[in-house]
Amino acid sequence: MSFTADCLLLFGATGDLAQRMLLPSLCALDADDLVAPDLRIVGTARQPLDDEGYRAFAREALEKFLPEDRQPAIEGFLQRLYYQPLDANETGHFADLAAKVGPTEQGLSIFLSTAPSLFGPTIAGLVASGLAGENVRIGLEKPLGTDLGTSRLINDAVSAAFPEDRIFRIDHYLGKETVQNLLALRFANLLFEPLWNAAHIDHVQITVGETVGLEGRVGFYDGAGALRDMVQNHMLQLLALVAMEPPSNFNATAVRDEKVKVLRSLRVVGRDEAVTGQYRAGAIGGKAVPGYDEELGKDSDTETFVAIKAHVDNWRWQGVPFYLRTGKRLYKRVTEIVVQFRPVPHSIFAGRGARSQPNKLIIGIQPEENVSLSLMAKVPGLDRGGLRLREVPLDIAMDDAFAGPKNRIAYERLLLDLIEGDQTLFVRRDEVEAQWEWIDAIRESWGEHGITPKSYTAGSWGPSAAIALAERDGVTWHE
Ligand code: NAP
């Protein structure tokens, strides 16, 4: 349904995500006149604040988290903010919230930045107070459940009040510029698509490395682990974008139709195709850091690392492994996709003693956003001692190539799409469920075979078994 909301209702308005990401993103959009002048933002949480109190709260967060050059925009932005205290478990509180929001005929976008356990009561309250009508859409933060069953419960609760075309499930990786650029690279160039298949690609690697440990997410993370926190959502979305067939259009239905086909084609992971790990004390950037158990304050079997050899069972990808690897307290913070092409079928230079390496496409997502294609080139010279070839990178650093346009954080894009109603970069229910189905099977297999995480030293690249997982196939992780 196409309408631009004139009110954004933000649940969890005093939370960590609101302070670090949502308020700064909204302020940046406002500073660049990307939201309508009459857009009102109503925040809600239990904290007993009035409008002025919330503006003071937001000012503090913005002064802390907004880049220096954006700070002059703060005062103007604060005038858009309103606040209504509410306990989401108290249906009776929603009448006052509805009064604060006012009529919804002009369009209301709601963002639930609260624990998923509050989604059910929140939706009941929205329905009871008339805040779930035709011109209302709803955005949901992850985690959407802890397995297929709980995710279905959440999805059922939401879809009892909102049709799918008004539900916006957020995976903030989809708001990242380079992730969208992956689609431009694949589908706005003739160059790659004819080679983008099992005949020419040897394997794909997707790495999401973090250097941080628990970072105050103790309660949440220990109940989740790396597989559910990272692979279930972000990494499978990246895999789907790499592997999907060309959609006929860059719109929500066409893109999501193609992604879900990939997710449903994922082969059940074999017992020897996954490695889990948990960090022990070590050093990151020369600084000593404690082990996971010490940070947690108790023993735990939660995995802080996982490496998986995945397969997409369809015509295009038969025989091409997708190696996925993510972990906390790894050697460096990096998110990247590496597409390793096959070697040339015959090297005309072999007789001259020159060796050539297969091409590699590296898509850097964070911290740097860049695309690099490794090509073979002749080392300059008269070659009296033999011809030499060397790998040279063809680099596109996005910051340099596009010095003009501002580099926007993912939530700016996603909040704007939520306000304007574009679902292309949001995850559809069938995608989430296909993701959970695959993840649940991995966890069941771990349970059946009594697999517990192997130790790895903080500051390394994970347990040695993860290196062996790739090395067995003659593959080296890109580092
Ligand atoms: P948080 O810091 O714990 O904030 C939770 C928010 O919910 C607060 O504003 C809290 O305010 C409000 N709240 C709690 N109980 C409530 C109730 N009964 N009724 C109404 N409001 C209530 O959590 P967060 O880090 O902002 O995360 C929010 C959601 O986003 C979570 O589901 C989280 O998993 C997800 N997420 C967070 C991040 C991140 O980087 N932080 C990243 C990805 C996803 P009061 O206590 O005043 O009520």
Verbal overview:
The protein has 14 helices and 17 strands. With 479 residues, the protein is an alpha/beta fold. It folds into two domains: 7-169, Rossmann fold, CATH 3.40.50; 174-471, Dihydrodipicolinate Reductase, domain 2. It has a nine-stranded mixed β-sheet, with helices on both faces. A six-stranded parallel β-sheet has the order 3-2-1-4-5-6. A hairpin with a 3-residue loop joins strand 14 and strand 15 (370-378). The radius of gyration is 24 Å and the shape is globular. The mean pLDDT is 94. Bound molecules: NADP nicotinamide-adenine-dinucleotide phosphate (NAP). NADP nicotinamide-adenine-dinucleotide phosphate binds at residues 12-18, 45-47, 86-89, 113-116, 118, 141-143, 220.
Short summary of the structure?
This protein is α/β, with parallel strands linked by helices and 479 residues long.
- Strands, count: 17
- Gross geometry: globular
Number of helices: 14
Helix content range of the residues, please?
25-40%
Keywords:
single chain, 479 residues, alpha/beta, Rossmann fold, 2 domains, 9-stranded mixed sheet, 6-stranded parallel sheet, 14 helices, binds NADP nicotinamide-adenine-dinucleotide phosphate
